[in-house]
Structure formats: structure tokens, C-alpha cells
Amino acid sequence: MKKILTFIMIGLSFFLMACSEQGTEDTSLQETIEYLDYDQFYTYQLFTLEDQLYYNDDVFYIYYYQEGCSACEYIKQDVLGLILLLETDTLLLFDAYNNPRAGIAIEDSFGVSSTPTLVKVSGNNFETKFTSISSILTELSKLD
Fold this sequence. Notes:
Order of helices and strands: HHHEHEHEEH
CATH topology: Glutaredoxin
Radius of gyration: 23 Å
CATH superfamily: Glutaredoxin
Shape: globular
Strand content: 15-25%
Structural class: alpha+beta
Helix content: 40-55%
CATH class: Alpha Beta
Number of domains: 1
């Protein structure tokens, strides 16, 4: 009986040591991406219709979102994580909830009436609008 208990203790110790080694991987980037919030991307935020039309790039994208939008929350980490990885393309953010006046102007100009919406702006003109989660994520996957 003593041998069986010793064998069980050794096996359990080996199992616990193996599990603890798996947890030592560097997950800092993953943890950072999991907790991204719009407030961390203030420099990517647009506040007026003029900001949206006359940004300094020939081609750029604007992602319209609002807090409390379940679809926006669903893709939030993908969108914000992508901003950190972009090297060439520009992705900007617009909070439709906290900018209601600009939101009315946007709806009139771009036809953006719901969130999430991704708009491609080219040459200071509205070019394309993406409104479903799948179309937004597909378009974002093409950015560099």
C-alpha cells in the first residue's frame, strides 16, 4: 500500500510540474489585446464630419461604433488589435453614441445609420460602406 501511495504521489507531482511549465509562456501581447479599449486609441478618434472627410491620407477607413452595441463589442478586440498592427493603411474610429450631432451629419453624408459600420474614404469622398460583421472583418483583413 505504501508503494502505491508513493507511486501516486510521484505521478501527481510530475503531472503538476508539467502543467505549471505550460503556464510560463509569454502571454503579455495576448493579454494586452484582450483588454483593449477605445479610450486607449484617442489619437485615432475622429470627432467631426470635417475630420472624417479631410484626413491627411488619400485612402483611409473609418470604423463607426458605439458603446453598448453588441455587434460592436463582438468585433472590438479585432478592430483595436488591428490598429496596433497596421503599417501602411489607416483605420480611424468614430464613436457614434458620444458624437450625436456629427452622427446626424454622417448619416446624411455617408448613409451610416447603424453600428458597426466601416467606411472607406478615398480622395476625400465616400467610396464604400460595410455594415455586417462578416463584411467588416473581411475588409479589415485586407489592410496592411
